Amino acid sequence: MREGKLFDLIARGGLVCYSVVHLLVAWLAAQVALGDRAKADKAGALQVVVANGGAWLLWLIAVGLAVLALWQTSEAITGHRHVKARRRTVRRVVSGIEVVLYGLVSYSAVKVAVAGADDGQASLVARILAESYGPALVTVVGITVVAVAVFLAQRGVRKTFVRELDFGDAPATTRATTIRLGQVGWIALSAAYGTIGVLTVVSAVTFDPAKAGGLDVALKTLVAQPYGGPLLLALAAGIAAFGAFSLLDARFRRI
């Protein structure tokens, strides 16, 4: 097998792993909505895998997503040369964001595979807030996450993710299904990250690290609101749509 073909196979496998993680997150989010307050963030989904004897799968997820992160790092620095300069800059920014998304899940997979548990983001935020620069730094991080969430939402609304796909001779129904799942999925992911960003800013303003955290804290905050259960179920369905889209993305992504 040629080196290029091997990279292509590993990268597409990484996208499949990314899909599996989000389908697990969606399932756990639905459990939270229905009354189970167990962890439902990405690390929580990975812990479900390792608890069921899937440590080998965690390493597979980590390697696949690390390859994706390295690929997108290259794309962010020197890639997308086939498009016009203005659009090239936007595409490289998108690649940079994907580096962060893939890298965080890969890091979480390694961390859970090695340690079997998550240290908790709240304790990290507490340490940062204890510093003189802490509130300002945490606020900037929260605003940045909200900005990324807005960017993810416009990817879904404007369907810009389609530029990264090559449908070839795929049937029209497959094309339409992929695009619709992508729209719903990116918007749902945006809502999740937006909630995380807002809660991070709130933690800085109120000096309360407990209000900050990952998707786990965001989901439990949502379910505690009026009509939180149905709202969280809708979000879980959206994240599941993103997981399904990622499977199709693995098939049609230009690599």
Automatic annotation (TrEMBL):
Organism the protein comes from: Amycolatopsis orientalis (Nocardia orientalis)
Ranges for domain DUF1206: 14-79, 100-158, 184-253
Keywords noted in UniProt: Membrane, Transmembrane, Transmembrane helix
Domain of life: Bacteria
Protein name: DUF1206 domain-containing protein
InterPro entries, A to Z: DUF1206
Residue ranges crossing the lipid bilayer per the database entry: 9-29, 49-71, 92-113, 133-153, 184-207, 227-248
One Pfam match: DUF1206
